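So, does this match?
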Amino acid sequence: MKINNKDDVIKAIETHNVKFIRLQFTDIQGTVKDVEIPVTQIEKALTSGISFDGSSIEGMVRIDESDMVLRPDTRTFAILPWGRDKGVVARMICDVHLPDGRPFEADPRFVLRKMMKEAEEMGFQLNVGPELEFFLFAKENGRATTIPNDYGRYFEFAPTDLAEDIRREIVLTLTDLDFDIEASHHECACGQHEIDFKYDDALTTADNVVTFKYVTRTIAKIHGLHATFMPKPKANESGSGMHVNLSLSKDGKNAFYDPDKDMQISDIARYFIAGVMDHIKAISCIANPLVNSYKRIVPGYEAPVYITWSGANRSSLIRIPTPRGNSTRTELRSPDPSCNPYLTFAAILAAGLEGIRNKKMPAQIVDYNIFDLTKEQLREKDIETLPGTLNESADYLEKDAFLREKLGAHVHGNILRLARAEWDAYRIQVHEWEIERYLNTV
């Protein structure tokens, strides 16, 4: 049943005998927050919203201006398929508003909506298809370990892949929540997996990313495992990325496709790529928000390091996958699944639209393995690298006045504050590697 409005929600609640509603939203870091209301409060929630203390949510407001209101987006209504023995539970994703009814400018959903409106005014809709990778680890005494659930590798299957049935359960659960699943498989590292779902508009996809992570963690917990979207949980294994497939549509047609142009991609696609490449160092602070994110962005593990674009070349930051026609798209390979998808998609869209407005062309494509180049060759070819640390990416974001304007000063400032605090907490620690390396030799 397609839910579009208040009446549809009420009917679905009655049809499925729903007892509780989870109202969900994300903080600035992308962490899902949740308040549960009994179904008797649904009229109030849908009419005037549910109040909460915004000062207790990371990146929102100060204690002297703490009152905020959750307004459910009825189109996100979904029945949760677990725990029904204690009453059927549904969820809705919410927009955050101020008490006077205005949207809260630092709500990640609002930031993305604002950028989508800007794209719409230029005649475009952003379509996004993410590829999320994650690890399934064993638990000991209720705590997560880094012991993989299996020792399978890329595209392997049972009995080596011990998580086939768990992946299927995740897929079936997501399908019940109206996801259009395209594929699932074992990834490169032991215990690592990927499930891909069909692209949609940027807001729907961001909602789906949040739901995907919630469902995956829940199903893993039911099976006594821990699912993590940490970018690099094991030093000598591949990390988990969230490759983002992007395209713009205009008048119902793919604006990235032009059969008469080189590579059959339009100038619009090239402008978009150039805009993203111009701001990618600053975007990294949003799309790769953890100290650990930069342990993944290193040569040798298929993660992008160099700011280049290409056709099928997987050593580039941005590549153009083979399909053309309506499937023409760019694949940005640097984001990881620890990011806030709303803010990440908003920043990417803002940069891409700037490239289109300025009709900026990207550098020449790179159709060879960049990992084979020496530092001298990289300099000769003027190939730049992504930031090597969270602190470095924060430096670039701090200087990026354009992204500050598009994200809003509140969001921009809080992302920087959190990044600096994360880096400071990390840099003052003495790690086991240092103890082993220096204690007996210095």
